[in-house]
Amino acid sequence: MPFTLRGDDVCQPTPPTPISDPYWVALSPSVAELIGVELGDQGKPRNPEWLDVLAGNRLDVGGLAFSYPVSTVYSGHQFGVWAGQLGDGRAILLGDINGLELQLKGAGKTRYSRMGDGRAVLRSSIREFLCSEAMHALGIPTSRALAVVGSKQTVIRETIETAAVCSRTAPSFIRVGHFEHFASQQNLTRLKELADLLMNKFYPECLSDKDPYLSLFKEISSRNAKLVAQWQSVGFCHGVLNSDNISALGLTIDYGPFGFLDQFEIDHICNHSDHGGRYAYHRQPQIMHWNMACLASAMLPLLELDHSLEESQDLLRSALEEFPLEYAKEWQQAFRLKLGLQSEQDGDIQLIERLLQAMHDSKVDFTSFFRKLGNLKKDSKPIEILQRNEFIDRVNIDEWFSDYIGRLQLELLDDQSRKVLMNRMNPKYILRNHLAQVAIEKAQQNDFSEVDTLLKILSKPFDEQEAFEDYSKPPPSDMYRVAVSCSS
Length: 488
Ligand code: AMP
Ligand code: MG
What we know:
By secondary structure, the protein is an alpha+beta fold. The chain is built from 15 helices and 14 strands. The protein has helices at about 30-35, 50-55, 120-135, 175-185, 190-200, 205, 210-235, 285-305, 310-340, 350-360, 365-375, 395-410, 415-425, 435-445, 450-460; strands at about 10-15, 25, 60, 65, 70, 75-80, 80-85, 90-95, 100-105, 120, 145-155, 160-170, 235, 260. The strands form five sheets. Strands 2, 8, 9, 10, 11 and 12 form a six-stranded antiparallel beta sheet that branches. A hairpin with a 2-residue loop joins β3 (about 60) and β4 (about 65). It starts with 10 loop residues before the first strand and ends in a 30-residue tail after the last helix. It binds adenosine monophosphate and magnesium ion. Adenosine monophosphate binds next to loops.
């Protein structure tokens, strides 16, 4: 299995704790296919034992046996402060299938549960399930979700809720926090094993580099720089960018109080517990950079195997300086394409920034604005563009549209071809909080149809889906601030 490090100081054998009366809430057919789970007519696994496996009630199905379920130890920085040892407090790694790790989230206590109950509520499990699949369909690297299994069993949060288990997969769930753990323990042997494992399985190109560990650091950092640029381009806010929630493969992992922007507010905070706004939308790039600095200091002893301390620090420091450059390059390219600009021209960045400032000032809906922008023509007149009505300062936006149209005229593509490309960058459908909320409330009444409908819509976020036009719309005014509880 991918997590091949073994030993008490790395992971603990952790059989899931059975849950009472499990039932299907949701299942992703494409992930089922990825891991080779055959589905029957009802869209559920042909072998009914899968329900018990994904509930944490049994460890074998057909010829497959998960004989060594484990939880792993990691440490990390939470909200900028060293939190010491954490670990999989409610995630159990069952094993791997087809090169993917299969984890059960909410399947009971582990050695690392600390004060927690090891469970997850139905609400947060549905949100993780839908968002993982939505992000994947948006083309953003992420862990995937196989299923949500519900139960009558209750758990206590702010109120009493029912428990659920979300099964999720990724090539590996190794995090920055795993590095930080072994570094804090000054356990160079484990640190090296972890880095070697990652290179052997996922970054083989680093092995032939003259400085493999530096190269590994650069690759991880580069993937995460690209990842945040992608988040920004679809208005995704992760909510809890603690170093233990940052993937060593550059995947979006550990969905909690995340949120997609409705109205564009650059400093939007999706996590209601994040009072200082550390993880606000506009801070995500800088915070990811900070997390890469955590990774760099954790990897320092690895560089010292070949270099002096000072040399190692210099090498990592300059590698870290590449992050903002790489991020900026990706961000600029993503937003150019959102505007339908295939070529690079002087003034493009100012054009993008002026638009975002105007959208922020008028709280314009992020997703639908960009989607509709594709309808513009090279000969449109600013005054006739309906979207101008979404802005308070019409003089300013007319000037912007005029400059934008001028800029479009430098593009070779005709209006229709540009629109086609823009529609591949500007999704029509995202997992808006109010949509998730409706699906959750129905599911809490044992009606899972809305979860299924959302899964279907969000798996084709760039397509026009006429029957589901309403799902593309901004929330009604009374649902703008759906409270996303962080207790999950
Ligand atoms: P998160 O912010 O959700 O990534 O969680 C931070 C840490 O708390 C991780 O080590 C989790 O495993 C742990 N944790 C969160 N919720 C629970 C829970 N209900 N029971 C046990 N551990 C938990
Ligand atoms: Mg986490």
